[in-house]
Design goal:
seven-stranded mixed sheet; six-stranded mixed sheet; Alpha-Beta Plaits; 3 domains; alpha/beta
């Protein structure tokens, strides 16, 4: 049995090895089918691609800002995630209390034979009286009393009298009807409850269609409870006013905040975004507990009711069967009275979430795109650009969470980063094509054929900083040399670079960090020398044609060797041919080297009888 298992494993291993070879050979054909055309494209565009991409990206941002603003449309969904994922939620100020007509309160009076929902007007008046006796500062009643009760005229009168006595401290719900009904409305803005002029002096007095409470004083002390959902159906921002011509109608949270003495700018903002909480709810008290003089009807026997003196109370039903649920970022079925209470809390406690203007998001995206394109255009090492990009994303992500958690400030950097990541990916792909061709990857350029190009020339390059430079300056100049060299090779030349023999963070990096070998191929010795000299001359010009010349802070040393490559037909005799590994070893080991110059004529054509050309000499 053991032998069978062993043979089976051998067979599986061999089958996988064969399958891997077949797959990679065929997949290489697929990759070369598109990578080699892209490589030829990079030879034409060179580094112009990056400014072109930056211009296209910034142009799209400008177009999107003036049209659909799709970059800003992502913000709502991202806000919902961040507000739920933040590590801490702000505690409520305690200045706003929700008085809930819950299942327990309705069941309590039903059990006493006094009817279920809807309650009579007298009971609502008694609830207001209980709040008034508790020293409440202001009350917003999120129950719409549209018509007088035919069975309880005395209760209607009592409730209207409570509205008169409470004056602006007691506010009741009204509804703004659709604008299509304004034309036939009898009410004008100058007489509408809670109306104020946005333009002073107002130039018009338009008609307005509203559904007001039945009583004179109830209607006079009413405010809007309309809410507006976002396009995805989630309610994130609560309206503070409804504009009609040069006028506006105040919402219930706005009126309550003014009654509570909160500082509200004039004219008030169109909406407010509460600091939505999922776990730390506003203080709640059941209506039955208040109506029964504070007895523990719906709360735990040992718990205390929230203090009411000087507070702002929102009264409304939270019973699930009454169908007043609103989808919010933290609760898909949040009762409407809690929504209004959160908006009131945001105004009274000053905890509203502040958001920067939308144009700042586009400005950030544009700046990051330009910075990304500039980094790739300069020829910065891809691993360094990757690290900077990741660090920048993490920093902005941290700033977004910290701002929302501790400062009630939400800056949606996520849509900007998503757009920049797309541009970064394109830059990274283009740089990968440039690098693939520069290092001689067969997916990007034709494989080396020793029969067509039997001669190879190799150059070992290293930068020697001026001894007068300190360690930091020398390190900076060496990095600048490698950046310019990389940019020269990525732009396209005949050389193939052998780079990264020692990884940047390897323990040998400090010893071999200047390792760079360039290889040229030629049909004969003179051809290989001419091609190498042409590229080295161009490299010198590239390294020194900028304002900050490398020659002033150091020199580039070169060691060049050339030989015909062994074709495998004379393994036993070295003759005039050297194997590639021997040529590479000679180039790396030879101590002789010469400074790179404008005309690099340090090639010997007389290789000698041994066929081992010495290092570059002049």
């Amino acid at each position: 049995m053991k032998r069978v298992r062993h043979l089976l494993l051998i067979w599986i291993d061999a089958a996988m090895a064969r399958s891997a070879i077949v797959f990679m050979d065929n997949w290489s054909r697929v990759e070369r089918a598109y990578r080699r055309p892209l490589s030829r494209l990079t030879l034409r565009l060179k580094f112009v691609f990056y400014p072109l991409l930056a211009c296209a990206a910034v142009g799209w941002l400008a177009w999107d800002w003036s049209h659909e603003r799709s970059l800003g449309a992502v913000e709502d969904a991202i806000f919902d995630k961040v507000v739920r994922w933040r590590p801490w939620q702000p505690a409520p100020s305690g200045r706003v209390v929700v008085v809930e007509i819950d299942e327990c309160s309705i069941a309590h009076f039903r059990s006493r034979g006094e009817g279920g929902w809807p309650w009579n007007r007298q009971r609502h008046a008694d609830l207001l009286d209980a709040l008034d006796r508790g020293g409440i500062g202001a009350v917003g009643y999120d129950v719409l009393f549209v018509d007088p009760s035919p069975d309880d005229p005395q209760g209607d009168a009592t409730l209207d009298a409570m509205a008169e006595g409470g004056a602006s401290r007691f506010m009741f719900a009204s509804i703004r009807l659709h604008r299509d009904y304004d034309e036939g409305a009898l009410l004008h803005m100058v007489d509408a409850p809670g109306a104020f002029a946005v333009v002073r002096p107002p130039r018009d007095n338009p008609q307005v269609a509203m559904q007001l409470p039945y009583g004179k004083h109830l209607a006079r002390h009413s405010a809007l409870v309309n809410v507006t959902r976002n396009e995805d159906g989630v309610l994130r921002d609560i309206p503070l006013r409804e504009d009609v011509g040069d006028w506006a109608l105040a919402s219930l949270p706005l009126q309550l905040a003014i009654a509570a003495g909160a500082h509200v700018r004039q004219p008030p903002a169109a909406s407010v975004r509460p600091n939505w909480r999922r776990d730390s709810r506003l203080p709640h008290v059941s209506a039955a507990d208040l109506l029964e003089g504070g007895s523990a009807i719906c709360r735990d026997a040992g718990s205390k009711m929230p203090a009411l003196r000087g507070k702002v109370a929102l009264v409304g039903y939270t019973a699930s069967g009454l169908n007043d649920a609103k989808p919010t970022p933290v609760d898909p079925v949040m009762p409407g009275v809690e929504v209004l209470a959160e908006a009131t809390e945001a105004l009274v406690a000053g905890s509203a979430i502040r958001m920067p203007p939308t144009w700042l998001k586009y400005l950030l995206a544009g700046a990051l795109v330009l910075l990304t394109a500039f980094a790739f255009w300069r020829g910065e090492p891809h691993e360094d650009v990757d690290s900077v990009f990741v660090a920048t994303n993490l920093l902005l992500l941290l700033a977004a969470f910290v701002g929302l958690t501790f400062f009630a400030f939400f800056f949606d950097i996520f849509a900007s980063l998503a757009f920049v990541s797309l541009c970064f990916g394109l830059c990274r792909m283009y740089a990968g094509i440039q690098r693939g061709r520069a290092i001689g990857n067969a997916d990007y350029r034709v494989e080396y054929d020793a029969n067509r190009h039997p001669w190879l020339a190799m150059a070992r390059l290293r930068f020697v900083p001026d001894p007068a430079l300190d360690a930091k300056a020398a390190k900076r100049r060496r990095r600048e040399y490698r950046r310019r060299l990389r940019r020269f090779l990525y732009a396209g030349c005949d050389a193939v670079m052998i780079e990264g023999v020692v990884e940047r963070k390897s323990w040998l990096h400090d010893i071999l960090d200047d390792l760079m070998v360039l290889v040229w191929k030629g049909s004969d010795q003179a051809d290989a020398h001419a091609i190498a000299q042409r590229d080295l001359d161009a490299l010198y010009q590239h390294l020194n044609d900028q304002d900050d010349r490398l020659d002033t802070d150091g020199s580039v040393r070169v060691c060049v060797v050339a030989a015909a490559i062994d074709d495998g037909r004379d393994d036993s005799q070295r003759g005039e041919r050297l194997r590639l590994r021997e040529l590479l070893g000679q180039d790396l080991n030879d101590p002789a080297e010469w400074p790179l110059s404008a005309s690099n004529t340090f090639f010997r054509t007389d290789a000698g009888s041994t066929g081992e050309p010495p290092c570059a000499t002049s």
